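Board notes (copied after class):
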Amino acid sequence: MTEQVPTPPPVSRWTGMGEALARLGLACLATAVGVGGLGAIVAVATGRDVAGGMAGAYYLVGTLLFLIGMFPTGGFSVIRGTITRRKPTGSRQEPMFLIGLVLIAIGVIVDVTRPF
């Protein structure tokens, strides 16, 4: 009797990409709802246009997330507060800057269309 050996799933550079994109989409959606809601609350509380307040919040938070996400990681230790001799290694490789870009794009859409 011969045993059937299961074949492992194919491994490529795209393995797991669907799950990562789903998590990124969920993070973008949750951040957009939170920032938009906060912008709308501030706009109503100050007597301003809701769409303008939401767009401003999207611009502000999106720009901050983009800048933080693109800040180089090497050379400075936040925990130790020291500067090492390492050269900066580039951006943080985190999705934070992508979420920032998505928020800026949503801000442009809300600002142009004025749906609220």
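Comment from the instructor: Residues 26 and 32 are 10 Å apart (CA to CA). Residues 25-113 form one domain.
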